[in-house]
């Protein structure tokens, strides 16, 4: 008789334990959403983690010791929170910046013996000049059409593509659009110039602040035509343009970057397990790599630590949602997207288990709400989330067919509903990809708001009863980073 009773009691106990675990999840009760929001708003976890990442590790360009150290640091910090951490292997580009100098050595009206220094920085993927540099005439163009019109004059010259970033547009809430318009010339301009036989290509810095600092970034040069390519400061682009109106301008340019064999690196993945729907995933993320001119505080250390703060918030509350919440610190967003591409390839089969994905990669300016790549029916289900974010001034919502976030667009292509914060980015491109992207530029209150928006959104999505539906199929990302 006892032999029958004990298994029966064990079965009943197991059912009760399972029921208790599920019942203990407060779900999307308004009070629970408010607790998640307010706990994140009151914490400086993200800010402290960002200080460690930027001040102790520093720049994190793929293939560098800094990138490797960042993987270890972030993985260890997430393990301390009790998350299940996995390092996903990827191969990443290894481009190393060398010497970068330029001067104007001849122009109309130049006093004898004068050579004017030009402030510039090599673009990612740039080819190299000989060690002693090159001396060549400069041709200035202001559009792709003008470059094509002067194709016969380009061979053997240094081409300057002088297209301004529209700061007026950025000040009116369209910073991403302004960036997309200008960065097209950084991405495709050098490649076009190379195809025309240019000796080198320069682009005007893609940013709004005229403090004579250059903005680096990726260019789309091909291996068979990898000419030297650099970004010049706004002021120096204007100077060259003014001198070119007077007559011929000659520049001496030295760029000595190296392209080394691809390096081993990792995406850092950390899971906060769900309860009854643990096989379904709500992904939150930022990218761990940065350009090498500064410490990548806004691009995108702030996004990584915001995602880490989601788990810290839920740990403090002892909350586990129905679905698993997964933090991903992407590697190689800046120079090729290997992290996002590798993740998508690994999870392509069964990608429908990704309920939703969120990426924070637009700087640490104040978030006003959310942008979502979801269908109309799914958008209507988010009203309780908007209500929870409204008291902190983040209730704005913008639905789009495709948001095309940097690393998430691979998942979005597969139909995963995607989210990002709607941010005041009016000054973001003052610092983006420059030597000024440092910890002191991050406002701690705004960073807490980022953590609160992401944590509340992740919690809400991970507890939704109704499916959001698959997103519209994306066609391409928002442009070249």
TrEMBL record:
UniProt KW Aminoacyl-tRNA synthetase keyword: no
SUPFAM superfamilies assigned: Zn-dependent exopeptidases (SSF53187)
Stored InterPro entries: CPQ, Peptidase_M28
Keyword terms, alphabetized: Carboxypeptidase, Endoplasmic reticulum, Glycoprotein, Golgi apparatus, Hydrolase, Lysosome, Metal-binding, Metalloprotease, Protease, Secreted, Signal, Zinc, Zymogen
Keyword Secreted: yes
Signal peptide stretch: 1-23
Residue stretches making up the Peptidase M28 domain: 267-457
Annotated localization: Endoplasmic reticulum; Golgi apparatus; Lysosome; Secreted
Subunit note: Homodimer. The monomeric form is inactive while the homodimer is active.
Alphabetical list of PANTHER family matching this protein: CARBOXYPEPTIDASE Q (PTHR12053:SF3), PROTEASE FAMILY M28 PLASMA GLUTAMATE CARBOXYPEPTIDASE-RELATED (PTHR12053)
Name of the protein described by the UniProt record: Carboxypeptidase Q
């Amino acid at each position: 008789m006892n032999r029958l009773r004990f298994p029966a009691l064990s079965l009943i106990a197991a059912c009760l334990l399972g029921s208790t675990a599920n019942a203990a999840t407060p779900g999307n009760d308004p009070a629970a959403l408010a607790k998640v929001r307010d706990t994140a708003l009151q914490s400086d976890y993200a800010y402290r983690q960002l200080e460690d990442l930027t001040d102790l590790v520093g720049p994190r360009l793929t293939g560098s010791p800094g990138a490797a150290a960042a993987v270890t640091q972030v993985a260890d910090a997430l393990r301390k929170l009790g998350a299940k951490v996995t390092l996903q292997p990827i191969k990443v580009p290894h481009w190393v910046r060398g010497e970068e100098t330029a001067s104007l050595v001849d122009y109309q009206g130049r006093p004898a013996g004068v050579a004017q220094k030009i402030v510039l920085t090599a673009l990612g993927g740039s080819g190299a000049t000989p060690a002693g540099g090159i001396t060549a005439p400069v041709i200035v163009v202001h559009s792709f059409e003008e470059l094509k019109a002067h194709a016969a004059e380009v061979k053997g010259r240094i081409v300057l593509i002088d297209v301004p970033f529209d700061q007026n547009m950025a000040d009116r809430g369209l910073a991403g659009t302004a960036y997309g318009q200008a960065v097209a010339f950084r991405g495709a301009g050098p490649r076009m110039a190379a195809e025309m036989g240019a000796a080198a290509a320069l682009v005007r810095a893609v940013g709004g602040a005229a403090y004579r600092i250059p903005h680096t970034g990726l260019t789309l040069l091909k291996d068979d035509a990898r000419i030297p390519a650099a970004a010049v400061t706004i002021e120096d682009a204007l100077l060259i343009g003014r001198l070119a109106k007077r007559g011929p301008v000659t520049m001496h340019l030295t760029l000595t970057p190296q392209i080394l064999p691809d390096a081993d690196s990792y995406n850092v993945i950390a899971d906060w397990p769900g309860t009854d729907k643990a096989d379904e995933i709500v992904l939150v993320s930022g990218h761990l790599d940065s350009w090498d001119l500064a410490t990548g505080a806004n691009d995108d250390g702030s996004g990584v630590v915001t995602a880490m703060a989601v788990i810290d918030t839920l740990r403090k509350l002892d909350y586990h949602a129905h679905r698993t919440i997964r933090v991903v610190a992407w590697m190689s967003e800046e120079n090729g997207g290997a992290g996002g591409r590798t993740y998508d390839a690994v999870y392509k089969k069964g990608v429908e288990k990704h309920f939703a994905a969120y990426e924070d990669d637009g700087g640490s300016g104040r978030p006003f709400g959310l942008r979502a790549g979801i269908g109309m029916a799914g958008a209507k289900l988010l009203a309780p989330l908007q209500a929870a974010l409204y008291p902190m001034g983040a209730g704005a919502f913008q639905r789009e067919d495709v948001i095309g976030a940097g690393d998430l667009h691979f998942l979005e292509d597969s139909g995963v509903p995607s989210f990002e914060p709607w941010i005041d980015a009016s000054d973001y491109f003052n610092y983006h990809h420059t030597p000024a992207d440092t910890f002191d530029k991050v406002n701690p209150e705004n960073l807490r708001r980022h953590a609160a928006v992401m944590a509340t959104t992740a919690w809400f999505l991970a507890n939704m009863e109704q499916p959001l539906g698959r997103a519209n199929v994306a066609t391409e990302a928002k442009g070249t980073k």
